[in-house]
Design brief:
Strand content: 35-45%
Oligomer: single chain
Largest sheet: 6 strands, mixed, barrel
CATH class of the largest domain: Mainly Beta
CATH superfamily of the largest domain: RlpA-like domain
Distance between the termini: 215 Å
CATH topology of the largest domain: Barwin-like endoglucanases
Order of helices and strands: HEEHEEEEHEEEEHEEEEEEEEEEEEEHE
CATH architecture of the largest domain: Beta Barrel
Number of strands: 24
């Protein structure tokens, strides 16, 4: 009979377990060895993504394969350095800057650009947008754009500013008149006037006019005209006047509200007045005496009293001449009697009302004047144009009778 069967079964079972363990150990060791060998063949590189570094190991051969392996979604606007086709080397650093979309508004017209730049001026340069000295920009050129991803630009233009009496050309951006004045640091006084609605928009080549208004109180002393009183005087020839009492102007203090625009007085309103000195009335005597001419056909002066004699240049006129009224300066009706003997004189040489004798004419009265009768010149009255032509112009002797 053979050996113990239980013992034999146990021995066989133990050998099978040892063989299984040995096989499993070989497999695990092989896998571990393979893993170590696989990892050991990877290339170590550093990826710098928007300033954040990450060290990785990879079997990728190029930069592009590495980014695809990392499932990096990069666009044509992103910046990758070195270039995508570059072969990977151990310890290589790969720079990846992800582009962002930025909105640029110029006078309300928006455009969108992709960029990896952070500074405003670099973004504008990349977008080929130039900013002038007086343009208004939402962020400083040296500032970073931040999280807003928007740049707002208002282009400056020239317009005319008239401030009182000063006119100048200034730069501004599209804004309201009120904001424009604030930008220009212009202060408006209480009564100043802007000849444009403060809420109105200003546009290129516009004109903003400020009228500087000033209200002041002005107290002045002014003269007060005197009244003229006339009185009839029968001792004076009609038409003659004589000052009886000289007039004197008074004085009055007047208070005015004066309104000036740009330094020029445009309105002066009387507020009050006070008489300081009353005026003195001027009294004038007006003559009413009418001289009646004596009719005389005689040229004889032998019966007349002696008087001053001198020579004058004599012409003749009729009461019917152009512009003649038929009434003399002393009130004589020259058309009433064809026998009247009247001469026109210069009253400073022969006073009106003086009785005279005229050579070749006879006794007459100085009862009229004439615009051209000056100095030693007289005009004798005749009653027809023919008589006037016959008389002509001559030098005659004249004698003052009284």
């Amino acid at each position: 009979m053979s050996g113990n069967p239980v013992k034999n079964w146990f021995s066989k079972s133990l050998r099978r377990k040892q063989t299984l363990v040995t096989s499993l150990s070989v497999v695990v060791f092989g896998s571990a060895l393979s893993f170590v060998l696989y990892q050991g063949t990877k290339t170590p590189v550093v990826i710098n993504t928007n300033g954040e570094e990450e060290k990785i190991f990879t079997h990728a051969e190029t930069v592009e394969e590495l980014l695809e392996e990392k499932e990096v979604n990069f666009s044509e606007y992103d910046k990758v350095s070195p270039a995508l086709e570059t072969k990977l080397n151990s310890g290589m650093t790969i720079e990846w800057e992800q582009a962002r979309e930025v909105t640029i508004s110029v006078d309300g017209n928006e455009s969108k650009v992709w960029t990896t730049e952070n500074k405003v001026k670099n973004i504008l340069e990349e977008a080929n947008i130039k900013v002038a000295e007086h343009d208004l920009i939402s962020k400083a050129l040296d500032a970073e754009i931040g999280d807003t991803n928007k740049i707002d630009i208002q282009k400056a233009f020239q317009l005319t500013l008239v401030d009182g009496t000063t006119t100048r050309q200034v730069w501004s951006t599209s804004t309201t008149v009120a904001n424009f004045l604030k930008q220009q640091e212009i202060q408006l006084n209480e009564f100043d006037r802007v000849e444009k609605d403060l809420d109105a928009k200003i546009i290129p080549d516009d004109k903003v006019t400020i009228v500087r208004v000033e209200k002041v109180t002005d107290v002045v002393e002014e003269s007060l005209d005197f009244a003229v009183e006339t009185k009839s005087d029968s001792s004076l020839l009609k038409g003659k006047e004589k000052v009886v009492t000289q007039g004197e102007k008074g004085k009055v203090s007047r208070t005015y509200e004066v309104i000036k625009e740009n330094g020029v007085v445009v309105e002066k309103v009387l507020q009050s007045e006070e008489v300081i000195q009353q005026p003195k009335t001027k009294v004038v005597a007006v003559g009413t005496k009418v001289v009646t001419a004596n009719v005389s056909r005689s040229n004889d002066t032998s019966s007349s009293s002696g008087g001053k004699e001198f020579y004058v240049t004599a012409t003749a006129y009729t009461p019917y001449c152009n512009g003649c009224s038929g009434t003399s300066a002393s009130g004589i009706n020259l058309r009433n009697n064809t026998d009247l003997k009247v001469i026109a004189v210069d009253p400073s040489v022969i006073p009106l009302g003086t009785k005279v004798w005229v050579e070749g004419y006879g006794n007459a009265i100085a009862g009229d004047t004439g615009g051209s009768i000056k100095g030693n010149k007289i005009d004798v009255l005749v009653h027809s144009d023919q008589q006037a032509r016959n008389w002509g112009r001559k030098k005659v002797r004249i004698k003052i009778l009284d």
